[in-house]
Structure formats: structure tokens, C-alpha cells
Amino acid sequence: MANKIKDTDYLAISARVRAMETTLLTAERMERLLEARSDEEVSKLLQDCGYPELDAARPEAMDAALSQAREELLTDLGDGAPDPRYIDIFKLKYDYHNAKAILKAAAMGTSPDRMLMDMGRIGAAELKTAVESGELDKLPGALPAAVAEAKSVLDTTRDPQLSDIVLDRWMYRDMAQVAEDTGSQFLRGYVETQIDAANLRALIRTLRMGKNADFLAGVLFESGTVEPAAILAAANHPAGGLNEIYGPTRFAQAAKAGEAALKGGSLTEFEKRCDDAVSDYLAGAQMIPFGEAPLLAYLAARETEYTNIRILLMGRAAGMHLIIATQRPSADVITGLMKANIPSRIAFAVASSLESRIILDNTGAEKLVGKGDMLYAPLGAGKPTRVQGCFITPEEIERVVGFVKTTGEAEYSREVMDKIEQAVKEKEKGGGGKTSAEPAEAQEDGDELLPAAVEVVLETGQASVSMLQRRLKLGYARAARLVDQMEERGIVGPFEGSKPRQLLIDKAKWQELQMSKQPQPEPEIDRSGSIRDVFESRDALE
Q1: What is the domain-level CATH number for residue 149?
Q2: Is there a single domain that holds both residue 481 and residue 511?
Q3: Helix (H) or strand (E) holding 376
Q4: What is 341-359 written as a DSSP string?
Q5: Would 225 be classed as within a structural domain?
Q6: How many C-beta atoms surround the C-beta of residue 78 within 10 A?
Q7: Same domain, 58 and 106
Q8: pLDDT at 341
Q9: Which residue in 102, 148, 151, 105 sits closest to 122, CA to CA?
Q10: What is the pLDDT of residue 374?
Q11: Three-state SS at 390
């Protein structure tokens, strides 16, 4: 830009942001939302935080209201920001989301309209028209090049996951370029932290799936603080490599959690540590009095908040029913937060009045006689009601089932029987020598050892039954069937007497085919927040 924007140019909007931060949903406010007994109470609490009236019973209307509130916030702050590109950082991800939806819909011959989100730098309808007409020059930023490459990959491979990876890579390039153009050190750090988190997630997920370095190289993103080459090197020695490259960074704890996840530990804990690293970076904005940092941190916190609210309200609207049972009613098992979210309770006979209080907030369950004798405390009841439940022993269940089997007459659907008979006839006509005893899944999808057999064949350069018998320790029949399945799928050529079968694909092509069948690690939509309470509220939801 011709005139460099100074931090003091942000004095007015920084003051506004500091005031608006007071309405963010803190951990305490989120707990109040979780404890709310009705949709009306939830709506009132959100209105107190500056949100419009939301109807939790109508998910579509609720989602539209939240989207409108977000759009109005971005427009409002964009008008007051000296440089609107800081707002674009939070808009462009929706451009790439819409591009994914439009390209996939075009490939499948369907309409993408219900998947489009009108919250990007360019309207969803305008983006759709530009992509469908091929007039990509009208698109902002790196979108023209991104859409062109993703469409080429999708047309060539027919693999939507590969085209998604292309668009994700361009999205981070676009974000990095916007950050570079603004000259903001804080924004560059934010983008780099986002990329580092996405790459670390990709590394751990790839290793957990048992994929090789070639696969990992295809899903890593550039412009982070840790180079893709270093990540690939760490993939070969994750035990010490992760700590070596991530130890000096803010992802040190996330890397330790990742190592634990690779050994069978919790993947949820690893994901949380990655989010915490992004949160810690944004929390540094609280120490900056004015400039672009408070604005960016506030917008990131709002993004997280929108996600949290959607999860909470959609869950309530879906009418989810949660039943929790325990044989150990102690305070460390049944916490206060758990009791607040499970208002209806049943207590059977317990050992002490303390245990009764933990379950019901009242005594009495210690006096129950067992065998279905219970105290029922529904939502809104002042005191529990004594109820006798039906107690059925395993022996009684067996007798009832036996009686039904001996006295009842089975009724079979003629339609279902006809379909089974027709399937058997078709199998006998075109079975190609395969027995009906072979599982249908194995006949359609191939033997479960087929991927391992292909790897062996490509490694050794020969597709012989005897070689598969030796390498995979199989019987002749199964090894021969594996070779036949490889021939059916165009992996090896037909039998030619004494000549070895010809290999029709190479290892790179096989890895590409396998990658198209596996879920790809995608960078998550930005859920980071600038305020620690915002992340704590996310944890409460999880």
C-alpha cells in the first residue's frame, strides 16, 4: 500500500473491540447455557450477549440468524478497520469451501446450492456462475489458479479428495499472501500457526493410518514455521523426531500428545493440544493495547464462539436423549456439570444417604429394598416418586423367547424371498467359477489381504501364486484367488503359460488409488479463539 498503516490508526477500532470482548461467551456463560432448562432460557442468555433472538427448535432459522450475525459483524468491523484485508482472512475460507462444493456438484451432476455459504469475499451465487462459465478472472486472490488446478485434478482423477487437497493448499497460500501484503507480523504469525497445526495433525493421522512418506508429502502445506521436509524426516523416526522439530515451538505439548496417540493414546487430547497452541498465540493479543492484533484476536474468538453455539443449539434442537448409568455413585464420577445436564434421575437401592444425595440431591434411596424398587425424580418435580420397576431375570427372558419360538408362526416376506432367489440365480449364471460360500463382501470388494498382496507383487516385480503363498503364508486357493482379483482389477495381466504375468500399474499409481479410498486429513475450519475462556467453553462442549 502506498501509505503504511500505523498502529495508532487502530486506536478507535481497538477501543471498540475491547468493549465488545466483554460480551464474549466465557466459560461461566457457556456453563449457564449448558445448564439452561428450556430453549427460551438459552435464547435470553444469548440475547444478553448481543445475539439476535434464536429459535433453537428450528435449526435452519437458527443457523441463518447466526450466519447473519457473523456477516454483520465482519461488515461492521471491516468498515471501521484501516485495512479490510484483515477481515478477508476470515472470509476467504468460505470462498474455498464454496469452490469445493461447486466442483463436486458439477462432477456428480447435482446442484451445490444447499451447501453454499454466502460469507466469503465474493457472493456464493457469483462464484458459482464464474466457475460454471469458466470466467475465473473475476474471482479474488488466488481463487482463479486454485479452481483451475482443482478442476483439472478432478477431471483427470475423478477423486474429489485430491481436488480438496489442492484447494486447501491454495487456501493457505492465499492466506499467507494476504498476511505478507499487509506487512503485519502478528497476522503472519497467526497464519503460520494455523499451517503448523494443520501439518502436525496430518502427520499424526497419516502415521496412525500406517501410510508412507509419499502419502504424507501430498497432504502437507507450505508457509509454516516447520518445513515439510523436516516433517517428512520426523515421520521416519516419530519417537524422537517429533520432539526434535516441535520441541522449540509452541506445539511442544501437542507433539508429546501426538507421540502418545501413536502408541494408542487419546487422539482427542492431541487435537485439543493443537487447538491450545493456536489459542496461546492469539492470547498474546491481550497484551497489545492497539493495532491490528486485538482486532484479529477478537474475530478469531468470535469464530470459535459461533461454532460452539451451533453445536449447542443443534444438539438441543435434535432432541438428543442421554442416559448415563453407574454402579459407583460418587462425587468424582457424577460431577456437578453432569448433574446439571441430566435433570431427570432414577436411583435404585444404594448403600448410604450420601450416595442418595449424589444421585437425587435428596436422601431416601438408601432405604429401598431392591429388585426394581426405585426413586424417580423427573424434570420439574419437587421431590422424587417411589416406583416399582419390572424385574426380569435372565431365566425368564429365555423362557419367553423359547415360548415365542415354539408357539409362534414365522412370517416371511414373499418379496424378500423372491429377491434372494433372483440373486442366487444371477450368481449361478455369472459367478465365473466362484462358489456361493465365498462372502459377498469378499467377491465385490476383494479379499481383505488384497492390498498387502498388491504391495508384495509391486515390491518383488512378479505376480505368482507360489510367491504369495510364501510371503503371506497362505494356502494355494486363497493365493490363487488374490491373483485372480488383481487381474480383474487391471493390476496384473492375464495368465500366459510359462511367462510371468505382466504388471499393469506401478507403485505410484497404486498409492494414488489407495489414497483415493482413504479419508484424507483436512485442515479444519478455523476454531481458534483469542480469549482463553472461549477455548475453555469449547472444551466444555467436547
Answers
A1: 1.20.1690
A2: yes
A3: strand 373-377
A4: H---EEE---SSHHHHHHH
A5: no
A6: 16
A7: no
A8: 64
A9: 102
A10: 92
A11: coil
Q: What is the per-residue pLDDT across 20-53, written as a single tens digit (0 to 9) for each? A: 878 887 777 777 777 777 777 788 888 887 777 7
Q: Which residue has the cell 484483515?
A: 86
Amino acid identity of residue 315, one-letter, is G
In this predicted structure, what is the pLDDT of residue 148?
92
pLDDT on residue 520: 47
Q: What range defines the domain where residue 52 resides?
A: 22-68
**Residue 235 domain-assigned (yes or no):** no
Q: Give the distance, in angstroms, between the CA of residue 413 and the centroid of all CA atoms in the same chain.
A: 40
Q: Residue 340 corresponds to which amino acid?
A: A
Task: Compute the C-alpha angle 302/306/309, nearest 5°.
Answer: 130
| pLDDT tens-digit readout, 120-178 | 888 888 999 998 888 888 888 889 999 999 989 888 888 888 888 889 889 999 999 98
**Would you give the DSSP letter of residue 330?**
-
Judgement on whether residues 62 and 118 belong to the same structural domain of the protein = no
302's grid cell: 468470535
DSSP β-bridge partners for residue 345: 377
Shared domain check, 422 and 328: yes
C-alpha 51/C-alpha 69 separation (Å) is: 7
**Sequence letter at residue 52:** P
Which positions ≥6 away from 397 have C-beta within 8 Å?
none
User: Higher-confidence residue: 426 or 16?
Assistant: 16
**How far from each other are the two terminal CA atoms of the chain, in whole angstroms?**
43
Q: What is the pLDDT of residue 99?
A: 92
Q: What is the structure's pLDDT at 84?
A: 81
Q: How many beta carbons lie within 10 A of that of residue 251, not counting itself?
A: 27
CA dist., res. 391 & res. 411, Å (int) = 31
Would you mind telling me the total number of residues written for the chain in this entry? 542
Which of 459, 515, 450 lies closest to 206, judged by CA? Answer: 515
What is the structure's pLDDT at 195? 92
**pLDDT tens digits, one per residue of 50-72:** 777 777 666 667 777 777 888 88
Q: How far apart are CA 374 and CA 367, in angstroms?
A: 10
Segment holding 88, helix H or strand E = helix 85-88
pTM: 0.56
Distance of CA 353 to the CA centre of its chain: 43
What kind and span of H or E run contains 386? strand 385-388
φ/ψ bin of 376: left (φ > 0), alpha (ψ from -120 to 50), beta (otherwise): beta
